[in-house]
Amino acid sequence: MTTIKPDKGVLLVAEPSIIGDVSFNRSIVLLAEYNDNGSVGFILNKPLKYKLRDFIPEISSDLEVYNGGPVEQDNLYFIHKIPELIPDSVEISNGIYWGGDFNAIMHLLKEDRLKKEQIRFFLGYSGWSSEQLEEELEVQSWVVVPNIYENKILGKSNINFWKEKMMEFGGDYLIWSNAPEDPSYN
């Protein structure tokens, strides 16, 4: 399988060898930032048992909140594809944006104008210091693939996303698509 170099907007697919890491086992991460200082990403396929209303009492939103990664899990982050509604957003790539004016989001939430295909909320993020991601790539912890879904990934990614990627990769990865999360259960 051909992998590409890491960059903003690509996906990191966890290798099956990542076992026992609660955050990254069977994860797919969207890289939101990649530079000489390090990398930031959000895990796309790990929904939590919380809804947005559990964190923001003044709204009644049923939008899911995802585990974005092990860093700063006491903070709420978001990516979206509606920069025209959320000022000060920063484009990651392919029509996916990170952050923006939270007051605008609160207004949109109170009016029930945000759909799950437009925005994704995360507790925490995934972060790598300078060279750390490269070291993990050298030991083959991740497969770097293009985000072929572009901004439609917000509606695409789900708990079966990693399994779908293993099947898509084919070859030796096929066996992992149906393997239990903890191989000792086999």
What does this structure look like?
There is one protein chain. This protein has 186 residues and is an alpha+beta fold. It contains 5 helices and 10 strands. The protein has helices spanning 102-110, 132-138, 153-156, 161-169, 174-177, and strands at 11-14, 28-35, 38-43, 47-51, 64-67, 71-80, 90-93, 96-98, 119-129, 142-145. Strands 1, 2, 3, 4, 5, 6, 7, 8, 9 and 10 form a 10-stranded mixed β-sheet that branches. A hairpin with a 2-residue loop joins strand 2 and strand 3. It is globular, with a radius of gyration of 17 Å. The chain starts with 10 loop residues before the first strand and ends in a 9-residue tail after the last helix. The model has no long low-confidence stretch (mean pLDDT 91).
What topology does this entry show?
Blueprint: E1 11-14, E2 28-35, E3 38-43, E4 47-51, E5 64-67, E6 71-80, E7 90-93, E8 96-98, H1 102-110, E9 119-129, H2 132-138, E10 142-145, H3 153-156, H4 161-169, H5 174-177
